[in-house]
Fold Junctional adhesion molecule A.
Amino acid sequence: VPPGKPLAHVPSSATVGARAVLRCSEAQGSPPPTFRWYKDGTELPQDPKSSPAFRNSSYSLDPRTGELVFEPVGGWDTGDYHCEASNNVGSPQKSDVFRMEA
């Protein structure tokens, strides 16, 4: 079963230096989908240190649970976030876009 439109849970504001958790969930897909996160239209790599665009960020990303955890939040983490669910059946589905202000 292809995934439906995922739901992104993004805090509208996050405190710099604190922890922020963004969640992506989708209930219809079978097999259960994996999740990707995007900031301002750019995919977040699994390891922020691997990308010049994200090396200032400190986060962990779990493609199976859809959890994106910033620890700590930095001022550069402000942006527009959305997630995408895909499971090799049908086409990937994108969530709505939400802004997080640090």
